[in-house]
Amino acid sequence: MEAPILQIAGLRAVFRIAGRDIAAVQDIDLEIGSGETVALVGESGSGKSVTSLSIMGLLAKKIGHIADGRISIRRRDGSVTELTGLDAEQLRRVRGNDIGMVFQEPMTSLNPVYTIGEQIAEPIRIHLGKSHREAAAEAVRLLTQVGIPDPARRAKQYPHELSGGMRQRATIAMALACNPTLLIADEPTTALDVTIQAQILDLLADLQAERGMGILFVTHNLGVVAEIADRVAVMYAGRIVETGPVSEVFARPRHPYTIGLMRSVPRLGQATALKAAGTPLPTIAGNVPSLAMLPKGCSFAPRCPMAIDACRAAVPPLFQVSQTQASRCIRWEEL
Amino acid sequence: MSAPAPYLTVRNLTKHFAPTAFSRGPVVKALQDISFDIPRGQVVGLVGESGSGKTTIGRSVLRLIEPTSGEIRFDGKDIVRLGAGDLRRQRRNMQYIFQDPFASLSPRMTIGQILTEGLDIQRIGNRAERRARAEKALAAVELPVDAYDRYAHEFSGGQRQRIGIARALTLEPEFIVADEPVSALDVSIQAQVINLLRDLQLRLGLTMLFISHDLAVVEYICDTVIVLYLGRIMEIAPAASLYARPQHPYTRALLSAIPSPDPTKRSKRQTLKGDIPSPANPPSGCVFRTRCPYAIEACAGVVPELRETEAGHLKACIRDDIPA
Q1: Which Gene3D superfamilies does this one have (chain A) (predicted)?
Q2: Domain map of chain A by residue range?
Q3: Does domain A6-229 have CATH number 3.40.50.2300?
């Protein structure tokens, strides 16, 4: 069997805050196959971005580091490289060649003093060893591929001359420049208007169908997950609390947090009925706990309508609900 | 049932931002000929994407920015013409809730100072009375009274937004502009804050203008929804009617672009092509025509008037033959 594009096992990343190591993520196991899109979904502080930064080796060195676990990726030549053991230079090479990255805010991930074309051409020159002329031509071809009209002219423009949606298309072109096997997209549509978000989601799906890369899609938006992902991992307070195929998890969530989150998403047309009946919108009581002061046992227990004493005794393991779905809830069978 | 007399009346509101000594460039036509009413005790939602003018409307009705032309009447009184003193007295009745609960609360002031600042400016009550009002507002937003002596950084995003709401309540206003009050919050907290706003609005009989970029968020709290695009109104309708029978092609596209949290409904949406044009150079005729899948030649000719398609439901589109 072909090795997965990305394999994470037992990842634990810690931040050093006020002299104390605080785990931002722990017990993370995740796999992405080629041509597969896996969504990492969670609210602020759940650890979804820390997970993606860990893969890219981009945790801020002074405060955060990977304390435990393995992250390996399958490269274009089929070899499997473990990222956690690499030095900075080796990691840079893997990142440029085999991992593409797209971030939330296209204006901050583009350099304002270089043209769009120069920025897309740079990795092609550095990582693929192409000449300036070849790289520039390739940049225009990539801009065409991400649906930018008049690409030859756009390549000569600076980021501020493009709209938000166009800029995000340009960063996608940049991420794809070296034909990566894995694309990490961290909230790539969050800063965009909803009609532009729809365009970018369509674009990512099309590009994946053409190139067969694996996509790790980090988002807080369950609607986006339902739209784009094959599988989903739901994170809460630094751990994956539920994982499985999108079709299964959305049809029958097996963790009370997933259930609460899905109920909290406003669904068009439903609110009118609730309002007419005088019923409040469904919510999850309380607030997300601070990572520095996680409760003992299940982190969700203080907000959970189903919590019992056993929940507060020990952190639940991931229970295999089906061959493909797993839940970190000791009462999953009752859900 | 006869409609109650409007509390807020906006007529032909237009706002152009001209270049200043420090900026170059063309005049930005942020709002063009906006008219709507809010009956007393009702909530009107303003929905649109970036550059649609929703925040400009919110700020104009409180005269935080000066309209270029048009009328804004509260209870019959045109506030565009009020002098500074009268305006300050009028503002007692009008408050603003901001989007970002991190940027809108001073890190150097205690919550008590933040909550009583408006009372100080309006010279309402003595020190004890101000404190009592602030504590009442804290109770109304379900925060503990001991929050009074603490600082904003000690609270989570959702709690801070409650403080922002409490600040708006201490002056016991009749009218509140809530500008994207839940957009910065996590989804599980969003619903809590919307429930709170709805509850306060009903209990206190508040009249409200609720601004959001997300049609899914305003459905629960609004009686009427106004859909804006590039500084113009595309559609106005009672909430139930808008979601059940959206009329304008833009409203339909906006609804269809919201990703549904249901994987079985995947890929049934219609995606709008292209970008939102610049408000410095809006298209002639219907401003939406450059992205509209149903645009015909006539759409470039005239600015479509708002027409009633059913009771209280108005659209600014010249076509009636668009398939549902």
Answers
A1: P-loop containing nucleotide triphosphate hydrolases
A2: 6-229, 245-334
A3: no
